[in-house]
Write a structure and sequence with these properties.
Elements lengths: L8 H4 L2 E4 L2 E4 L7 E4 L2 H15 L28 H15 L1
Antiparallel strand pairs: 1-2, 2-3
Bound molecules: zinc ion.
Length: 96
């Protein structure tokens, strides 16, 4: 399936849409974002990968692998897309 965007397929599962905007998840201490559009987040991720190429030790990725519920309490990231999303979910639950 073709799309009109320039977002690489390898990026799509690392781009997360939250109530704050789009985040790009990284293996580093801080995720990138929020950005106004998925395209901006993708661009930022491309730049990030260029900067960190060769520096990055390939991890197992288990900490942020999606399906399991993200544990914000034990998360050590300083700017985390999944924590931002979890925060919004909590606010929504409290409000309703
Ligand atoms: Zn987190």
């Amino acid at each position: 399936m073709r799309t009109t965007t320039a977002i690489p397929p390898s990026h799509t599962k690392r781009l997360v849409h939250t109530a704050f905007g789009w985040y790009a998840m990284t293996r580093e201490q801080s995720d990138l974002g929020p950005f106004a559009s998925q395209q901006e987040a993708s661009n930022a991720l491309s730049r990030h990968i260029r900067v960190y190429r060769g520096v990055n030790i390939r991890g197992d990725g288990a900490a942020h692998s999606g399906l399991s519920l993200h544990d914000s309490a034990s998360c050590r990231k300083s700017n985390c897309a999944l924590c931002a999303e979890a925060h919004v979910l909590r606010q929504t639950l409290v409000a309703s």
